[in-house]
Queue: 4 jobs
Job 1
Amino acid sequence: MTYTINEIFWSPQGEGMRVGQMSAFVRFTGCNLRCAMEPGPRSPGGFDCDTEFMSGRKMTAEEIMDEVRTACGLSHEYLELHGAWVVFTGGEPGLQVDKELVDLLHIGGFRCAIETNGSVCLDGLGLDWITVSPKVAEHAVRQLTADEVKYVRGYGQALPKPACHATHQLISPAFNGLTIDRKALDWCLQLIKEDPSWRLSVQMHKAWSVR
């Protein structure tokens, strides 16, 4: 079994409940949705994407493990004692991630998280953390449980009614490129004041100028 990988890098988690936590990001090539590169929360052709994930190279699970270890630079002893996070992202990583890869990384001392658009059911893979950021209509969401569910919101957009049942519900204000949309931020703050079951999540990696 091989996987098509765009890049592997070591960086702090930029958003969500685990923000600031160092993680090895494994970016998979390919997506099952139409996306555009223009800034903003939404484009006519699909949801906007500011990540290049079309190119890639074939790698085995063992090769991914080796490159993750190299990227994080942590010793075997450290990983045995403390572990570390791997985040599967994309594109849509749910198209490729399987139990073989998750099990191998677990053996290596890593906990496995995934950032998915929710269009693929991931049950049974043994993942340690699931982030669902729906990019499809709620009736088309196939991953119905998660640790966190996260939506981007622009000015004037109401809170969603998630099909995915998650421990944490987050909304993230839209950005204009690398700059946060102040009107969107104020709007999101008002939404969570009115419904405190939601939490604000800002894409801090853009403010930090890291991936």
Job 2
Amino acid sequence: MANWEYFYNGVIRKYIIMFGNMFNDIQVVRYNSAGAAVQTITVPIAYGPSDKFLVRLNADPNLDRQVAIQLPRLSFELINMTYAPDRALNKMNKNTNIGSSSKVVRSQYTPIPYDFQISLYGMFSNNEDAMQVTEQILPFFRPEWTQSLKLIPEIGDYYDIPTVFTDMSIEDTYESDFETRRAIIHTWNFTVKGYVFGPVSNKGVIKRTVLDFVAQQSNNSIATEIGPHKKVILTPGQYANGSLTANSAASVSYLNISANSTWDYAFDKFDYFDGVNRHNH
């Protein structure tokens, strides 16, 4: 924490936008006594707790304002976030991607799984509108609806994010005098199985690896002597036409090979020391 640097990936905001987009095209149709459709209403949706909209609904007790809140209406809010250890990944693994320059590699440790509890509220003036909206929501969750999101554009990986329906409740606030507007409230509770991410690091591309090792010789299955000293230099291998090769003699210089090129690993140099003399191969 001593070398803490600011970062912000905005993934929680993306989950909230994803959730709201799932319910922004719901419609309610009003019928006359003959069963003919006379009005189609697209149900508006906004982020915020249900109490906020109830206050606006009850702010006109005399019903004499020219503009009042219209029903039906949907709202939603993030209720809670909990760590999900059952979906945890190896924390030492990294996701990588080529940066804006072929000489830069972007990397990020694997994300941490979290469950986001989000409640969706529906406020209605009559029961028929409430049933229409409910029947347009529930069939798509069995019990989850999965969407694929590119959460970290710098890395470019897509994640399947399930939204799981857990339960619902119904409340009728019509228990006061005749001047109070009635509001039937349906609450649908969901769990978004998402992730949070750490910072993205930019590092140079490693194009040359030197392996320097000593093998032990054994005497009667017991390692007693220091054996030959070996050095291997491993580099990317690529022909001049851009195709891959493991032949270091036929490869172009590793300095001319970029991170997003097609290449294979090649042994650029092999030194062998037998304890007395050094041999180059």
Job 3
Amino acid sequence: MLAELAAANAAFQVIKQAVSNGRDIASVGNQIAKFVDGKETLQKKVSNKKNSPFYKGQDFEEFMALESIKEKEAELKQIILYVGRPGLWNDWQRFQAEARKARIEAEKERKRKKQELLETIVLSAAIIIGIGIFGIVIYIGLKTRGML
């Protein structure tokens, strides 16, 4: 959790410094992506932790990490609104939503394929074991009739 927060904070500092030095938003696109990735990873970890049966409530550290990210995101919004073209923030929000949906769909597809592979392996193993048992039964039957 702290690693994700540190990565997001470092990316944000680079964004802030670059913009204050007169660079445009496009030049720090990679850092914005790192910031967003750190934010989403942190939120996912906290969410997964909350859904755990062993979770005993939100830790203050988690709360403060998420709060820090929210503050930095609000600052990033202000930077984009002041430095970027009109409507850039709204376009960015729409782009993020679409990308998030695509990542969720890709994750579902990955899980579905993994499940299919597991089912195929189990079915193949069952068929091989069944053929083996059938072969043993035939062998024993032939052996007891004296045909072997």
Job 4
Amino acid sequence: MGKYAAGKYAYAISDRSGLRFPYNEMVREWNGSLVHTSEYEAKQPQLEPKPVGSDSQALYNPRPQPASKTSLILLSNNPFESVIYSGTTYVNVFSLDHQRSAGDIVRFRGPPVVTTAGAGGADEADQRNLQAFINIPTFDNVSDLNNANGFTIALGKIDAAGTVTGATTTDSLTTPINYVYITSTSTATTGGIFGGGDNTSAGPVTLEVVNG
């Protein structure tokens, strides 16, 4: 079979411009047109768009963060104040930026102590059972702060005239909200007395053990 001539003296007519060019300077475009190298146009990339897959929906083998557990909030020294208004005893509680809501149920606890040091078995639960909370001491005849069922709180700070301030961040008393108050079943003697001692805390009625 014969071979093609080199064409070094040949000419060709461009399919685009109709002009004559040296044969060896001609190229063929993607659509089959024979054109001179100076007229060559590459195929428009938008004629062959790359397929776009769907967005990923989830990670493989995810390990989401577990929901946080409600925990104790340590209160400052003597955070409780007795208030007598219209024959009812209230207790103001100072808890810095507590972020609680009106109607939340909060239980107050005294300082934690080890009740039976060195006792208990090797089991981890036995060791945890050695821990307890001592009672909050009575002050101004208010003795019910250790109620195991907790108290339903109201936001703000109440005074002897029944006026509540600091219940919102727009109040002049505090920003953010730092006070809650409860209704006591005790009968305060004087009112306006602070108590509770050191290392008292506010938290849920039932505590959950956090491993780790």
